[in-house]
């Protein structure tokens, strides 16, 4: 991907770059706003948190004992608040007016009052120094994954034998292909309304389609232990800042293909 990023209040809006990379003739992602924020560039976290977080969010922020985890959490909240303000500025009189809550699966959603009467969906992910926040008017999910050699060691825990041949269509070395698959399966886990979360081997890659700057992964549910929908949403997968990036925005063809979502 070419790093043409548009500045926003905090972080950078990379929506145009990612939509361009994840497109091909006749196929484009539905509208969304995606904001990137560097964890190391937060500055004084207490000052930033005091200005941008709601009282409930501040209480959660102060529960983190470890500085790194606290800063990652804060960066994710700031990034997704920026994404919401970019997509729906009418509900964003201030960043502290946008409250990001989580359900029992850890999936973020907009709390009140910002979320009241507005059909907006959000997603958060971070890896290394990069935090991303996604906002869409359709159900969405997001994952970003640093490449680590450990992916090769644990491949049997998330890769079916039948998926190996399809990974070759990614036109990448094995570590990069594994990173793309891991990010895609993580995005699926975050997206699906299933508890406990979907296991990595409860779905199987069934198709890989080339995009301008990435790949479109198609999946099928394969769990024998519990009911998992056969039809799963497609996942757009590519690269940002040297990390595997996976996005689901369940609209358009995804809804036509799979009425469950």
**What is the domain tally?**
2
Distance between the termini: 29 Å
Task: Give me the strand/helix succession.
Answer: EEHEHHHEEEEEHHHEEEEH
Overall pLDDT level: 89
Low-pLDDT runs: 1-8, 252-256
- Beta-strand percentage range: 25-35%
Number of strands: 12
Main sheet: which strands, in order across? 1-2-3-7-6
Q: What is the CATH superfamily of the largest domain?
A: 4'-phosphopantetheinyl transferase domain
Please describe the biggest sheet, giving its number of strands, its sense, and whether it closes into a barrel. Answer: 5 strands, antiparallel
Task: Write the CATH architecture name of the largest domain.
Answer: Alpha-Beta Complex
Radius of gyration, in angstroms, nearest whole number: 18 Å
Structural class, judged by helices and strands?
alpha+beta
CATH fold call of the largest domain: Ribosomal Protein L22, Chain A
- Helix content estimate: 25-40%
Helical segment count:
8
Instruction: Write down the overall geometry.
Output: globular
CATH class of the largest domain: Alpha Beta
In short:
This protein is an alpha+beta fold and 261 residues long.
Question: What does the model show?
Answer:
The structure is a single chain. With 261 residues, the protein is an alpha+beta fold. The longest helix is centred in the N-terminal third of the chain and has 21 residues, at 67-87. Strand 4 (100-102) and strand 5 form a beta hairpin. The chain is built from eight helices and twelve strands. The chain has helices spanning 15-21, 45-52, 55-61, 67-87, 150-153, 163-167, 174-191, 253-257, and strands at 6-7, 12-13, 32-38, 100-102, 108-110, 121-127, 130-136, 140-145, 203-210, 214-221, 235-240, 243-249. The chain has a five-stranded antiparallel β-sheet with strand order 1-2-3-7-6. Strands 8-12-11-10-9 form a five-stranded antiparallel β-sheet. Strands 4-5 form a two-stranded antiparallel sheet. It folds into two domains: 6-137, Alpha-Beta Complex (Ribosomal Protein L22, Chain A); 147-242 and 251-257.
């Amino acid at each position: 991907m070419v790093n043409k990023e548009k500045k926003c209040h905090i972080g950078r809006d990379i929506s145009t770059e990612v939509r361009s990379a994840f497109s091909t003739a006749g196929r484009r992602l539905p509208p969304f706003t995606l904001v990137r924020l560097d964890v190391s560039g937060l500055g004084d976290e207490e000052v930033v948190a005091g200005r941008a977080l709601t009282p409930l969010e501040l209480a959660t922020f102060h529960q983190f004992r470890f500085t790194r985890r606290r800063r990652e959490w804060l960066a994710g909240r700031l990034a997704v608040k920026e994404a919401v303000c970019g997509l729906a500025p009418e509900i964003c009189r201030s960043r502290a007016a946008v409250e990001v809550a989580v359900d029992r699966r850890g999936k973020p959603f907009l709390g009140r009052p910002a979320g009241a009467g507005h059909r907006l969906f959000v997603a958060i992910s971070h890896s290394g120094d990069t935090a991303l926040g996604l906002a869409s008017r359709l159900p969405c999910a997001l994952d970003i994954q640093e490449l680590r050699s450990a992916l090769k060691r644990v491949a049997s825990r998330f890769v079916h034998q039948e998926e190996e041949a399809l990974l070759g269509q990614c036109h990448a070395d094995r570590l990069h292909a594994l990173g793309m698959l891991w990010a895609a399966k993580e995005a699926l886990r975050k997206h699906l309304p299933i508890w406990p979360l979907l296991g990595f081997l409860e779905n199987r890659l069934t198709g890989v389609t080339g995009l301008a700057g990435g790949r479109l992964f198609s999946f099928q549910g394969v769990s024998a232990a519990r009911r998992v929908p056969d039809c799963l949403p497609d996942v757009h997968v590519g690269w940002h800042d040297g990390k595997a990036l996976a996005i689901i925005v369940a609209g358009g063809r995804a809804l036509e293909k799979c009425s469950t979502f």
